[in-house]
Task: structure prediction
Amino acid sequence: MAGMPLIGIGQTEVPASQVKEEIKRVEKENEKEAKEAARKVAREEQKNAKTEWDKGVTTSIAFSQVSFTNWAAGGDGNLSLNGFANLHANLKKGIHYWNNSLNLGYGLIKNNGDILKKSDDKIIFESKYGYSLNKYFGATAVLTGRTQFSNGYDYSEDPKALVSSFLAPGYFAFGVGFDIIPLNWMSFNVAPLVEKLTVVRLPELQTIYGNDSAQVCKFALGAQLKFDLKKEVFKNVEVTSNLTLFNDYLDHQWFDVKVQWDLYLIMKINKFLSANITTNLIWDSDILTTDTNDDGIKDAARVQFKELLGVGLTFSF
Result:
């Protein structure tokens, strides 16, 4: 072939272009085999990865008393007792992780001459399975639940009015999405598909929490964004923040975001003593908290806020 460079291979002369194509083909095959070998090694490492559990419990009990005897300036004595327990059990194996948490709280207060009343009551759990895509992203499936232990009353009414109880309300949600983890103490969970269930087992409370009359369970389908932060901001001062935003696709109002924000501040005094501040903020247009017409019927939603401050014994193990 005139004008085409030839390369002698044994007794045969082969065009240079053909040799180059053959070299490229071999290189591609080698690259493919190397990638397959790397995948096999990764699968084997994942199969033999060590299972790592991180388990822990933090509990706190805070007690306070105020007493007056012949006190000229006046005052009202009281007793209060508050306690909480935060439990976690997190599993990691290779690119798989499974995080579980349970937060429990209960408090009582008795003012002088008054009956014993509840000051705190919560049961919150979360279970999240994740599949790490890289250091900063992971696909997730999350199950959450929130309710309380015992009856709650509105003491401004006479007689006192029942306003909450176990599973009245109860909130449960299951969603699929992904984690964004920019820092080891901060994460975002974005779930474009979340099924949420509002349970109100007591008929007299169903309309207060957004369910229809005689409707025990209300279904919602929407999107959810959850922001979690846990960091020691100063020495012996730790902040934990959990902010959840939910928007219901099925709601007649397209952009009606439900807000749930829990904030915990633990300030360690020594090994056993600590000061704790807990705040809870809720905005949910379906929860009726205010009687605007003075007719004895709650007909409007308002921002709900609760704050607890206590100094007491804290144990972690």
